[in-house]
Amino acid sequence: MYAASRVWWMGIVILLIAAASGVGTSMVKDRQQRVAVAKAMTGGNSEIAPQIFRKYGCAGCHTIPGVHGADGKVGGPLTAMRQRVYVGGVLNNTPDNLVRWIVSPPTFSPRTAMPVTGISEEEARNLAAFLYAR
After folding, report:
1. How far, in Å, CA of 91 to CA of 78, rounded?
2. What pLDDT score does 17 carry?
3. Reduced to 3 states, what is the DSSP secondary structure of residue 71?
4. Which pLDDT value is given to residue 111?
5. How far apart are CA 26 and CA 32, in angstroms?
6. What is the percent of the chain where pLDDT is above 90?
7. Is 38 exposed, middle or buried, given 0-12, 13-18 or 19+ CB atoms closer than 10 A?
8. Which of 91, 88, 96 is nearest to 112 (CA)?
9. Burial per residue of 79-103, b for 16 or more beta-carbon CB atoms within 10 angstroms, e otherwise
10. Cβ atoms within 10 Å, residue 41
11. What three-state secondary structure class fits 128?
12. 105-131: per-residue pLDDT in tens?
């Protein structure tokens, strides 16, 4: 009885490991595809975005998954950007609009708390690529 139970549990463990490895591979491919699509959409490099977020203090105001220390509560969390309808509550969510918002938010919403930080358009494209790839 004990041996049969042990074999059954070992079988379950093996199935879980096999399933997890397949899911892991699928998740990596999905992430790689999202990164490639985000790069094509924005012309940016998502890999250097975390440094840019820290350089300009974005992490002090926003929670940004994937950026160490980015747990700010002043601005909204920068999650699921590719699924949102609007950027900053005022612009249709397109790559160019996201870049324009990052560079100069008060241009589109004069009363926004988000300041002009001095981020260049190229840097904003890198941030947009990162946000759309998540």
Report:
1. 15
2. 58
3. strand
4. 96
5. 10
6. 72
7. buried
8. 88
9. eebeeeeebbeebebebebbbbbbb
10. 18
11. helix
12. 999 999 999 999 999 999 999 999 999
pLDDT tops 80 at residue 4: no
Q: Tell the residue number behind the tokens 């094509």, with chain if given.
A: 40
Residues in the chain: 134
Whole-angstrom Cα distance, residue 23 to residue 94?
Answer: 30
pTM beyond 0.85: the answer is no
Name the residue with tokens 């059954």: 8
Query: pLDDT tens digits for 23-39?
Result: 555 666 788 999 999 99
Tokens of 33: 């595809």
Distance CA 2, CA 86 (A): 59
Residue 128 CA to residue 88 CA, distance in Å, equals 13
Question: Position 28: which residue type?
Answer: V
Q: What is the DSSP string of 77-99?
A: P---GGG-SEETTTEE--HHHHH
